[in-house]
Structures are given as C-alpha cells and as structure tokens.
Amino acid sequence: MKFFLIGNRKVGENAPVFVIAEAGSNHNRDLNQAKKLIEIAAEAEADAIKFQTYSAETLYSKKTPNPDYLEGKLKQKSIWQLIKDIEIPREWQAELADYSKSHNLIFLSTPYDYKAVEELEELNIPAYKIASFEIVDLPFLREIAKTRKPIILSTGMASLGDIEDAINAIREIGDVPIALLHCAINYPPPFEDLNLRAIKTLKTAFQVPVGYSDHTMSITIPAVCVALGASIIEKHFTINRNLKGPDHKFALEPEELKHMIKNIRETEASLGSLVKYMPKSEENLYKLARRSIIARKRIPKGKIIEISDIIIKRPGYGIAPKFLKIIIGRTAKKEIDEDEIITWDLI
What we know:
This protein has 347 residues and is α/β, with parallel strands linked by helices. The protein folds into two domains: 3-271, TIM Barrel (Alpha-Beta Barrel); 280-346, Type Iii Antifreeze Protein Isoform Hplc 12 (Alpha-Beta Complex). It has twelve helices and twelve strands. An eight-stranded parallel sheet has the order 5-4-3-10-9-8-7-6. It has a two-stranded antiparallel sheet with strand order 1-2. α1 (31-43) links the parallel β3 and β4. The chain is elongated and about 100 Å long.
C-alpha cells in the first residue's frame, strides 16, 4: 500500500509530508501547558500533535536501571518514579482531542498498554503511532491491529527481521494500513548514527510509506529525509527547553519547529518529478537569454551567407547555434539588417 488516509490527510506516495509534532511528556502534567503545545503545533502548521498514554505500573519494572541518557539528571529518582511523575492524566485526553480538532490538528497519542488502546478508541483517534521499543511486543501489535486503524511503527534499533515480524503480526489480523518510521533512538543521537539512506531500504523492502522519527536537535535533517523519500516526519517539541522534565532539553522550541516545517515544505515543493522539463516560469528567459544566430552586419538580398556575416548571441528565438553549418552557404531571401535575428524564413 503506497498511501492511506489519517483523518482527511493522505499519507504516503504523492501526498504532502505528514508532520507529527511530538508533545510527549512536555505537558509537565499541566493542562494549560498541554493546550499551549497544541497552539504551538497549530501555529507551526503541523498536521498532527501527539502525546503519549502510559502508566508507570504497566511500562517499567521498579527494578529497571536508569538509562544512560538520564544518568545524572534523576538524582535519587528511579526511571519508574520519573514515569509516574510525568504520566498524562488520562482524563485530559478527550479535552485535548477536542482542543486539537478546534486548531485543525489531528490528535494522536502513543498507547503503551491495552487500557490505553481502549481509551483512545473511545476518542476515535484516526491512527496509532507505536514507539520503537514496542516493536517486539507482537501480542500488543495484534491487539492494536484489531482496531483496523492505520499503524505508524517506529523502527529504532530494529533489524529487518524485527520489522518483518511486526508487520506479519499486524497482517495476521487483517489488511491494516502500515507506515514505518526510520529512527536513531538516542536523545539526541550523533549524526553518524542516523544512517538516513536506510529510508530507501525500508521503502524497497516493505513497500509501505516510510518516514523518519527525528531525535536530533537539527531543523534540517527532516528536510534531508524528505529528499530521501520520507513521507512522514515526527519531531519532539517544547514550549521552552529550560523547563523541568526529561524531554525538554532534546526538543525544538516553537520558532525552531516552525522553521523545520518550513524547510520540509520547501523541500517537498522543490523535489518535482523524474522528468527533466522546462517550467513555464522559465519560458521568457528561454526566449531572451539563450543564444541564436544574428546578423553581424547588413546582408544584402541574394548574398551567399558567410561566417563573417553572422554572430551568435542573445536572444534565443532565432535559429539555434547548432544549425550554424547549415546556414553557411545559404542565400539571403531578403535583405537582413545588422543585428537582425535570423529566422528560417529569411534564408
């Protein structure tokens, strides 16, 4: 499947890039802050805003060591406690979904447990985005596939075999639309880990829309991905990187998000097609700035044209220079003035 619909947006081949502004946990359990994130995403002209629906109890064992990227940032707090502190209050989700709709944004949230899927189904969200870490939870993927909603599957750390297993698990349930997101999973990853050409590999291998979930701080990398064929871009953003919380420091601020999306739109507008052609906007310059054969001096009627009689210069709507050898030795049918543009009817 080369494209599918998420809400009223076409996603995939020959469609505008679908931009997901990832709010994640950057609401800081403040409803007004969550709404402000929606406003920022709308102003930046993203297509969708995405939150995350999880609970510490169903996400992490209390015995889980802290990830390296959070070492030194949690002090005495465990990753389990961190997650507990930044869970989105699930009773907010209906209000946030309505607020997103009022700002012409598609509301999405990544589910991390079965209850989250039930709750998001009650909101009738139009698609499910699955995090890279969940790609190996095949029973969970099958459960989500039962909704028959499109599934956008991040593939950070995944082998082609992992991805094939996940797609097969989804396909066991039915012909569910699937898109893949290439991803380098660190926050932020070094550029040498991005391996962006793998976007083309995923498109060739699985014949589904492919995008990129970007964890870098760059506003140009997503545009590069679009040039490589990405049809979806997901990017973390925040109100202010100085806010407290684990994800703010790795997220774009409002103006950066706006510029990133502008870069994406300029890139997709510039890609064009595989056909080499002259756009209509160049027709005037085609006539005026290309060269053609011009009379160097007055050429009397009946004179045999010699090389000394002509010059090649602009404009370009006379006889093209490639026909010079054909012109030499021809006879002037009428008098040709100095600097006159020579056309076929004059010889």
